[in-house]
Amino acid sequence: MDEKKLNIKLKIWRQSGPNTVGSFVDYNVSISPDASFLEMLDELNNSLEKNNQDPIVFESDCREGICGTCGMVINGEPHGPLRKIATCQLHMRNFKDGQTIWVEPFRAKAFPVIKDLAVDRSAFDKIIQVGGYISVNTGGVPDANSIPISKEIASEAFDSAACIGCGACVAACKNGSAMLFVSAKVTQFALLPQGQPERQKRVEAMVAKMDEFGFGSCSNTYACEAECPKGISVVNIAKLNHEYRLAKIKSKNVEV
Amino acid sequence: MGWFWKFTNSSIGKKLVMSITGILLIIFLIIHLAGNLTLYWGEKAFITYAGTLELLKPLIRIIEVLLALVFIFHIINGVRVWWGNKKSKPIDYKINAKFKNSSIFSRTMIQSASIIFIFLVIHLDTIWYPYNVGTGAENLYGIVTSLFAIPLYSWFYIFAMVLLGFHLNHGFQSAFQTMGWNHKKYFPLIQKIGTIYAILMAVGFASLPIYFLYFHGR
Fold first, then answer.
1. Are residues A100 and A204 in the same domain?
2. Which of A61, A84, A203, A214 is deepest in the core (most CB within 10 A)?
3. Number of structural domains, chain B?
């Protein structure tokens, strides 16, 4: 093995619990350029554990960019400097030998830090619970393709449905706004026939829940779109604004 | 009307108020600039223009009240949006890469707005107030040209107009996005029109103090 290794200086946010004060801790690693960013952290954790030190807490699951579990802010950008990838798809070859990398957790009022780089994103689950679903009747199996949907609409809905709910939009937004996430979910259903029964109720409930958690208002900086690992477009946010406005005007609901 | 109150106080509702009042102010600025540009045709043209407005005074007074309401809603609501958003992001990143994912115009709306607000207060105090509440003998052309002869006044005016351009460059397209009018065919055009509009307003308004300070009567 005469593979050239990269020497990286890491400054990682360490915080022992939700209510404790955190700080940056320096680490030096020598790592293969072929390692992914998370593999680099795995190796660092192995060496920390060998020395009886507390490993760095971070979340990950599929490690192929489709589950939305991983996510941290690398040199000021959620999921790192490359576009349209999750942290697990970022490789160390994208960094220079001797470079300093700052690693921070996603920051937002609605995403409190649990420990180190892990944040509580259960607010997203709660938003989905109030409206991110469709009603499906039980009974006989319907014929396939019995509801006509054009390819264009199906593709558009799929583009919105590609959101993996990682929370990078909230992390990137200077207002900690969850509008890209919520808009992707609302748009995905609003475009398709199956989403029509709960259309108004859904958008009203999801926005109300989003506000309840203290996510900010969208100020159209479009940082979310730039940092989204799935490239979800801000056109979804325009669609959400439109859906919400119409639902508020048309619905008979005076409560929410 | 409980639902309406909740609607306008929701995250999207607050932005909608910004959008609607913003579009009204965008229209107002065009009319205001068109009137101001008569200054280039000299005292007579400007006084004729101001005199025409004087003939429509009852109507102008109603418009002024509505305009004041639009400004107040835009300002108060804007501060609320900014304050709420600040609370949603209590801790900022140590390393900030915002310049990589968003434009400076979009990130500095509150800063540009603050300077424009200071400008607005000075503007009303030095031009609108003496003309409307004074003895009636004031010559609007005289008021304006004597103010533009003060370098500090003119340079702050120019500075505020540059920031107005910043504010409008983001605000114009943002208003459309908030209304939900982001269409693949038209939105790129809206963004371009917004930038051209912002430059025209900034250059148009700022050209007047430059002209009167350095070129007029020399």
1. no
2. A203
3. 1
Strand, coil or helix: what is B104?
A: helix
- Nearest Cβ partner for A210 among B3, B11, B85: B11
pLDDT tens figures, A119-135: 999 999 999 999 999 98
B-chain residues near A211 (CB < 8 A): 10-11
- 171-190 in B: which are within 8 Å (CB) of A? 173-174, 177-182, 184, 187
Question: Would B6 be classed as within a structural domain?
Answer: no
- The domain in which residue B119 lies consists of 12-83+106-215
CB contact under 8 A, A77 and B97: yes
Tens-digit pLDDT profile for residues A157-170: 999 999 999 999 99
The predicted complex's ipTM stands at 0.93
B65 falls within a domain: yes
Domain annotation covers residue B7: no
For residue A140, the distance in angstroms to the closest alpha carbon of chain B comes to: 39
- Provide the domain limits for residue A229: 121-135+149-250
pLDDT tier at B95 (50, 70, 90 boundaries)? very high
A130/A10 same-domain check: no
Interface test with A, best of B1, B10, B11, B172 (most A CBs within 10 A): B11
d(CA B73, CA B77): 6
Q: In terms of domains, do A73 and A126 share one?
A: no
Asked if the structure places residue B207 within a domain, the reply is: yes
Q: Do B173 and A223 touch (CB under 8 A)?
A: no
Nearest to A248 among B7, B88, B89 (CB): B7
Give the pLDDT confidence of A43-65 residue by residue, as tens digits: 999 999 999 999 999 999 999 99
**For residue B56, what is the domain's CATH number?**
1.20.1300.10
Q: Chain A: residue nearest B173 by CA?
A: A220
